[in-house]
Design brief:
This protein has helices at residues 9-13, 16-42, 61-86; strands at 90-93, 98-105, 108-115, 123-125, 135-136. It has one domain. Strand 2 (98-105) and strand 3 (108-115) form a beta hairpin. The protein has 3 helices and 5 strands. The chain is of the alpha+beta class and 145 residues long. Helix 2 (16-42) runs antiparallel to helix 3. A 5-stranded antiparallel beta sheet has the order 1-2-3-4-5.
């Protein structure tokens, strides 16, 4: 059983530049996936999540190519998400690049909150309030532990 890791503000901020780079890739991949999905859906060959997601033997070559590219992009996205999780960050919304890190302040658990495009972590919230409850980190006591 592993112990839960808590981050200091400095530790979480040290990951922001990595996450900026990774989320640029994530957003590009998601955009490409959306275009491919819409094209495949319009042709009646949209990928499905069930086991019966097979193509007929006479599927057009452009459909085969697009489906192969789609699944390759899905795998690339999965790898990017794993890279984010490896930092200890928790993805809250992949479309907006919203990420939290567990932290402690005044003997209670909080979440440091960052969104793609922000230069550093400037906000935190309680676990039960989410993004809507974000408050400035300047309100926190001591996040060095």
């Amino acid at each position: 059983m592993s112990r839960k890791r808590y981050f200091t503000l400095a530790e979480a901020n040290a990951q922001v530049s990595v996450l900026q780079r990774v989320f640029i890739g994530v957003l590009q991949i998601r955009s490409q996936l959306k275009v491919l999905y819409e094209r495949l859906d319009a042709a009646g060959f949209a990928p499905r999540q069930d086991e019966a997601d097979t193509l007929p033997d006479d599927a057009p070559s452009d459909i085969l190519r697009d489906r192969a590219k789609f699944y390759g992009l899905v795998e690339a996205l999965r790898e990017q998400v794993e890279e984010i999780h490896a930092t200890g960050a928790q993805i809250k919304d992949i479309e907006t690049g919203l990420v939290d890190w567990p932290a402690r302040n005044a003997n209670r658990e909080i979440l440091l909150c960052w969104r793609f495009g922000e230069r550093e972590i400037g906000f935190w919230h309680d676990a039960d309030t989410g993004f809507a409850g974000r408050r400035p980190v300047s309100e926190l006591d001591d996040l060095t532990r």
